[in-house]
Amino acid sequence: MNGRTQSGWGGGPNSGPGSDPNSGPNVGPSIGSNRDLGNARGHDGWRVGLVDANSASERAAVVALRQQAYASAREFAWHDLATLGWTDTDARSAVLGLWHQDEAHGLQTLLSTVRATVFHRLDVAEAFLEHALDGVDAQAPALVLSRAATAPGEHGRGLLALLRVAYMQALPKLGVRSVLAVVYNDAPRVRSMQAAGFTMTPPLRSWDSEAQALTPPLVAHLQENRFAAALQTALALAATAPAGAIDTALSQAGPMAKALRRARPTVQPGLRASA
Predict the structure, then answer these.
(1) Is the pTM of this model over 0.85?
(2) What is the C-alpha to C-alpha distance for residues 34 and 274, in angstroms, rounded to an integer?
């Protein structure tokens, strides 16, 4: 289920095993270096931006956070944490990260991440999600959110909304007509997504190859005519984040759009997704 979200506006499970040597369980989420890929730095030690696919430390941080979050998820049971490694799908998508910067010690800790991929065909998006889109009023091109993960104890601070601001403001530059993700009935972010205009549809069929659902899965869908309202909702939630942090998210429209234009999903209709 590539479009699954652990708790935020994103998605999750169908990813094939990664070949990245940093995908093992001993990789920690703290990193000490970063290349500037449109990443914006806030005034209070926060950074929101694209994960540098060329940085082994940043890739390792993403993998470690995914494994930590999915291992403790209550909504689903993950079959094999090794499948959360950095894969070709990550390299071909826009992976966002939210870091807290400890400038005194030269460390950055990844607090939240989500992956975004543009699909120009709904049948390909459905194969990626591994949940049927029957009854979902989606249109292509569609932005599919997946591999969302957040560190324990970081909910309710307005930080997650910063990632939402970063990708939502890029949509007008892409011609995207829908946003899709898979969430779970009892996930903490379902209500906030509904308030932002997402509709929740129980899939008629599911063939999730990576996880066993412990609560009913839902296909979250945001229509194009609700993008502006969803962005305003995210901005309102982000207002509770530390001063200056929201400016870092607002600067991401250009870099996000550029990265998403380069994204080329590899999954084909009828084949198991490699996320």
Answers:
(1) no
(2) 27
